[in-house]
Design goal:
Largest interface: A-B, 73 and 73 residues
Helix content of chain A: 25-40%
Order of helices and strands of chain A: EHHEHEHEEEEEEEHHHEEHEEH
Structural class of chain A: alpha/beta
Shape of chain A: globular
Oligomer: homodimer
Largest sheet of chain A: 7 strands, mixed
Distance between the termini of chain A: 32 Å
Radius of gyration of chain A: 21 Å
Number of helices of chain A: 9
Strand content of chain A: 15-25%
Strand order of the largest sheet of chain A: 2-10-9-8-5-3-4
Number of strands of chain A: 14
């Protein structure tokens, strides 16, 4: 199936802006008359340093990263940060973890290796269909930080407020970064695997308050030490150059579209279309509670597993790919990240309506 | 300068085969009629699993990885392995480290965090211009492993024998993997950052004897646990998909060229041309001793720093890029990895002769 016949609703890695891919394609063998691909450049060259600096500058501008915070471009994905965060920030003490889904649970499990983990909330009793309110959060007086995951890709829920805590906020924004405004100054640490809203897989962005660095124990693996990575501006060793280049192109694309306000408007428009079908249907059952709905990942079921499977197969046959729910969650999931054209939301909405008419009993 | 006017002698990231780049370019927006870029694919899709499995199968075939050994495709570069290796294999005990250059020294320093490091050799007294002989190596009876770096990118030296040790061999082959035959069965662990001979930066290949897994302590960061990564076939989390795809394309290219024997012949031909100039010159001074010379990185000086700088500038003006020596080493370095065409060796050889004639006093 050709590219113009396909919409890719994968939860990550996921669709990238077509204009970004075309630019990368056109420059692939020869970046700006250098005679080299970005994949072939020394990371110590002025040429690559320019790409690297521009990427950081674009991110800094787009989400207004204050000078109090440092931007790191790392490897290893969010799962590496599940360990790096407690190693760097816990000092063997305690932290509060809000468990609202699969990945925040894994983060909490990993942190237990390095100190005391207190569950500020745990929504597993209702299969993570909700985000707790501020008053429901249990907060410890001695917490080194409060950890949460802003958007739960597997459950399809999203925090629509910033928790008020005495401890520094640490937030996994892997699946909704750049899709809505964020006041970076309120966070001790923000991180995001890049493969949903920002770049191809293999890059992790960490934004951290400089006052938090330098607390890691001596046995910290060098590559997991925030202090070391800050000191070397993320280039202690060879960074994932191509991924950083694509990251920069995506950031430029977001700027061209009108920045974060435009992304916020578009995500509301796209997700709104799909939720509208769910709200007007007795066929589909949405997973997330209304007040906790994600703008990035819409999760739902049809009446039966057989119909879920039929939905997935029929959608794929029409070029609407990757709408299967996460393995632990089942059902269906439509991911609508920044790079998803509005036409992609229209297409899945129309298909959902059609499928309901055909299969409703 | 256009691509056909340039030779890139960078030490890594470095030149990739042009046919590989052209294939990646042609498939960039639509991989095999999927309507998606490899950068957009779910890593859990059959399509990506096919790419992943093919990459592993090609490597297994090319260097005959026995069934006793597992292939891991990881993130974080060699520097992450500097920590992962002792964390996974040292069990708080001792290991022998052969320090023959910048990176083996860094590996030894990192390992000290996790146990006792015994220097089997240390060639820093002569600025790492040599590889010790077997009889010069000090070997401890209680070593959990013997660590060495097969090719020293910064010094321009290479081990031309496999050390005989009672302890399992652990080897950093970042800069000469796939350039010459290797008997994998003799190694406990082989690893290589991919950005020199194999793929764009952001991928690290680890090949390890399965009998060595499962020794890491409980506090091991999950992403650094070989046991966990083996269990999840390197996909505990999202792998660097694009890098793995390019890796597979490069492996196919090596196969097409005639495999490792062809690579070995070519490396001898390329490096031979440059060493011949050095051996017939009273102007250039080679850094490495004759018996320890690297086939990948040729290191040398002109009579003065000023002439070194002039060499670099004049070479660059003619499209011969990145011949500056490593920052701690100074002088000049010509890297001639697998993807460097023989014409690239001819070009730098001819330029060296010309430069000598012009500047010799």
């Amino acid at each position: 199936m050709s590219r113009d016949k396909v919409f890719n609703y994968a939860a990550g890695p996921s669709v990238l802006p077509e204009s970004v891919l075309r630019k990368a394609q056109s420059e692939l063998l020869d970046y700006h008359g250098s005679g080299m691909s970005v994949m072939e450049m020394s990371h110590r060259s002025k040429l690559f340093q320019g790409i690297f600096d521009e990427a950081k500058a674009r991110l800094k501008e787009l989400i207004a990263v204050p000078d109090s915070h440092e931007i790191l471009l790392l490897q290893g994905g969010a799962t590496t940060q599940f360990a790096a965060i407690p190693i760097n920030l816990l000092e063997g003490g305690a932290a509060d973890y809000a468990v609202t889904g699969h990945f925040s649970n894994r983060a909490a499990e990993e942190a237990k290796k390095y100190g005391t983990v207190r569950l500020s909330c745990d929504t597993s009793d209702t299969n993570h269909d909700r985000i707790p309110t501020q008053s429901e959060l249990k907060l410890s007086a001695d917490a080194k930080y409060f950890y949460y995951c802003a958007n739960n890709t597997t459950a399809g829920t999203e925090w629509h407020y910033v928790p008020k805590t005495a401890a520094p906020l640490v937030c996994d924004m892997s699946s909704d970064i750049l899709s809505c405004p964020v006041d970076v100054s309120r966070y001790g640490l923000i991180y995001a695997g890049a493969q949903k809203n920002m770049a191809p897989a293999g890059l992790t962005v960490v934004i951290l308050d400089k006052s938090l660095i330098g607390r890691e124990p001596e046995w910290t693996p060098t590559m997991l030490s925030y202090q070391t990575m800050v000191k070397h501006d993320s280039m202690l060793n060879t960074p994932p150059c191509w991924n950083i280049y694509l990251f920069s192109l995506v950031l430029a694309w977001v700027q061209e579209q009108g920045g974060i306000p435009a992304m916020e408007q578009l995500r509301a428009e796209r997700a709104g279309m799909v939720y509208e079908v769910l709200d007007n249907s007795s066929f589909y059952k949405p997973h997330a509670r209304r007040d906790s709905r994600s703008f990035m990942n819409v999760t739902f079921h049809t009446p039966t597993k057989e119909l879920d499977a039929a939905f997935i197969a029929e959608a794929a046959a029409r070029g609407m790919l990757n709408v299967k729910g996460y393995k632990t969650q089942g059902g269906l999931r439509v991911s609508l990240y920044n790079a998803m054209p509005v036409e992609g939301a229209v297409a899945i909405r129309d298909f959902m309506k059609e499928f309901e008419v055909a299969h409703h009993v």
